[in-house]
Specification:
- By secondary structure, the protein is an all-alpha fold.
- It has one domain.
- The protein contains 2 helices and no strands.
- α1 runs antiparallel to α2.
- The chain is elongated, with a radius of gyration of 16 Å.
- The two termini are 14 Å apart.
Length: 71
Amino acid sequence: MTQMTADEEREFQDLLERLRQEHRDLDIAIHALQDMPGSDQLQLARLKKRKLQLRDRIGYIEDQICPDIIA
C-alpha cells in the first residue's frame, strides 16, 4: 500500500468532516421526526438508512486515513 500524500489526507479529512456533519444533521432530523405525532414512517426509515450508509462511509474513510496495521 502506498503512503497517502498530505493533499490526499487533507481531502479525506475535509470529506470526513462534511460526512460527519451530515450524519449529525440526520440525527437531529430523525429525532425531530420521531417526536412528531403521525410522522411519516417511510421518510423516517429512509433517513435512518442514509444515516447508516454515512456511518459506514465514515468508517471506511477513517480506515483509509489511519489503517489498522497487523504486525
